[in-house]
Write a structure and sequence with these properties.
By secondary structure, the protein is an alpha/beta fold. 34% of the residues lie in helices and 21% in strands. It contains 11 helices and 16 strands. It has a 7-stranded parallel beta sheet, with helices on one face. A 5-stranded mixed beta sheet has the order 2-1-3-7-5, covered by helices on one side. The longest helix has 18 residues. The relative contact order is 0.10. The model has no long low-confidence stretch (mean pLDDT 92).
């Protein structure tokens, strides 16, 4: 659960159902600064003289406001559209692409007009019918740590549970999922857990749940009948990486019930970075040990027109062969969507 240092209510947000609920949860906590903004100019209320400070103070800030634009972004290849429930994440993962995307606005924001968002989702579903429309709920955020404040995830899951042609999926690095276990999901929601080796999580994924807690949470949602998946990412290729990732996959298997026969979905993504992302990471985490030596990588143009540094062709081929073999050995009925 997110425990912010300050909560900023945009103009009028505190008078909404979600805004009142959040205010009532925090009003008696002397450790949380409550700011009722007279406008939607948020940055002036968050300390920080440079990017290093703005990142840290921003990550301690929860903003409560309205989602202005109801035009959903596309979200290929994982879904048809992004579903904007939350913006930003309380985690401080050193490699995260949100470091670049959110720039000097790394605060977490929850939207008070979820009913409007879901009405728009319904419109998209109806427009594409009879095709099934898939929505991704964590494209620019991790909504799970905010659920105690908003109840937005459960509301969304139950909305899609009633939609014959709508499906919902999201990914998380947290384990606060108990309130979702009794949701009427009708098998229309897929919950994925972003996972990595304990050493990678401990080194780079600050303020997130441990690998074991994520796996335990995955077991709970699997028992509750949800479709369950794991995103193993980003995969770093270092000395003895194979043994660490085999142990990770085995640890998932060992924690599942012995009679568990549900399909587990796997997505595997190697580490890559852009020059812009590298420069931003070095500003925010000047002591980072993320391997970002351009000479050790291959430069490749991506689908959006900008270039990124990826592992070499031989390294990626070895990685792909390894994960395809080991996941199938340990999870014979697992579904591997891709290894990239």
């Amino acid at each position: 659960m997110f425990n912010p240092e300050r909560v900023i209510f945009e103009k009028g947000a505190i008078d909404t159902y979600v805004g009142k609920n959040i205010y009532n949860k925090i009003k008696d906590n002397p450790d949380i600064e409550i700011i009722n903004a007279s406008s939607n100019k948020i940055k002036s209320h968050i300390p920080g003289e440079n990017l290093y400070e703005q990142y840290r103070f921003g990550k301690e800030t929860l903003v409560v406001g309205e989602r202005k634009s109801l035009k959903f972004q596309t979200c290929k290849p994982s879904a048809n559209y992004q579903l904007p429930l939350v913006s930003g994440c309380m985690g401080r993962c050193e490699y995260c692409y949100l470091n670049t995307q959110l720039g000097d606005k790394p605060f977490v924001k929850v939207f008070v007009n979820i009913d409007d968002v879901l009405k728009k989702a319904k419109q998209y579903i109806d427009e594409r019918s009879p095709a099934i429309t898939i929505f991704e709920g964590a494209a620019t955020s991790d909504p799970v740590p905010l659920e105690p404040y908003t109840n937005s995830l459960k509301q969304t899951i139950e909305f899609f549970g009633k939609e014959e042609k709508g499906r919902f999926r999201f990914v998380t690095k947290y384990n606060d999922i108990n309130t979702l276990l009794d949701a009427k999901h009708n098998n229309h929601t897929e919950i994925r857990f972003s996972i990595n080796t304990p050493s990678i999580i401990d080194t780079y994924e600050h303020h997130t749940a441990s690998a074991n807690k994520r796996i335990e949470a995955a077991v709970k949602v699997a028992k509750a009948g949800y479709k369950v998946g794991f995103i193993i990412a980003p995969v770093f290729l270092y000395e003895n990486w194979q043994s660490d990732y085999i142990n990770l996959i085995k640890s998932i298997k060992e924690k599942l019930p012995k009679d568990f026969d549900q399909e587990i979905i796997f997505e595997v993504i190697s580490h890559r970075y852009t020059t812009k992302a590298k420069n931003r990471i070095l500003q925010i985490f000047p002591d980072t040990t993320i391997p970002m030596e351009d000479g050790d990588r291959k430069f490749k143009y991506g689908q959006f027109g900008y270039g990124k540094y990826v592992y070499t062709k031989d390294e990626l081929a070895e990685m792909k062969e390894f994960f395809l073999l080991e996941i199938k050995n340990i999870f014979p009925n697992g579904i591997i969507k891709y290894v990239i």
